[in-house]
Amino acid sequence: MGLTQATGLVVLRTVMLMFVVMIIAFVGVLPYASGFGLWIVGMCLVGFSFGGFLAVMPSITADFYGTAYLGANYGFLFTAYGISGVVAPFIIDYLRTSTGGFTTAMYIFAGLAAVGIALAVMVRAPRRLWLAPINR
């Protein structure tokens, strides 16, 4: 196993761990937060995981698509990340309005995190064509 493959495996395990932390926050902490202290713990768990994705996504992008166009590829990925940051609050507000609370949204996002874990387990890096020298 090469260095890139080993690093990729560690990064994917890190992504899975962040999803697990989000599930713990959405299912085990936030629904039971009756006071500010427990609520802030849950929000910190979500925030640290959410921010952790920013730290590992450049590495995943480079491992999967190479470094030649890393800026452009990461730009596409980061745009999707930003769109989700704009759209998700509207989805949460819709769910809160229609159900009377935030718990349904938390369970839905925990389910999406579980899907993320499954995808991280199944993902395989594409063939390393980008390792071949580029003739210009």
Q: Secondary-structure blueprint of this entry?
A:
Layout: H1 3-29, H2 36-65, H3 70-99, H4 103-122
Helix pairs in contact: 1-2, 1-4, 2-3
Protein described:
The protein is mainly alpha-helical and 136 residues long. 79% of the residues lie in helices and 0% in strands. It has four helices and no strands. The chain has helices at residues 3-29, 36-65, 70-99, 103-122. α1 runs antiparallel to α2 (36-65), α1 (3-29) runs antiparallel to α4 (103-122) and α2 (36-65) runs antiparallel to α3. The mean pLDDT is 85.
Explain briefly what this protein structure is:
With 136 residues, this protein is mainly alpha-helical.
What is the gyration radius calculated from CA atoms? 18 Å
Count every helix, treating DSSP H or I runs of 4 or more residues as helices. 4
* Biggest β-sheet strands, sense, barrel: none
The SSE string, one letter per element, is HHHH
Strand content: under 5%
Using the alpha-carbon principal axes, give the shape.
elongated
